[in-house]
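Lay summary. Proteins are chains of building blocks that fold into shapes, and those shapes determine what they do. In this project we predict the shape from the chain. Here is one chain we studied, written as its sequence of building blocks.
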Amino acid sequence: MKNPKNILITLVALLILAAIGKIVVVSSSTTNGTQLSKLQSDIDSLDTQNTILKEKLLGLTSLHTIASEAATMGFVEPKNTYYITSSTHLAAKE
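And here is the predicted shape, written in a compact code that computers can read:
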């Protein structure tokens, strides 16, 4: 028969090793959770900035804004439109 004292010592050692393993796993998951939370916060911030920039871009590229900027720079609409027409075709079949 095996010595009960050796079995008890082995079980206690396994219990201690399991407790240490659990501490290591919980510690690393807590650190990962903190990093995940920070990354999620960064993503939310970047999404907000992206939305703001999209709205600014839409405002700056609107036809009204472009027309007013062109008027400020001195551009005017043409009074007469000229077309160049030719009686010969540029790509005529032979």
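What the prediction tells us: The chain has a mean pLDDT of 85.
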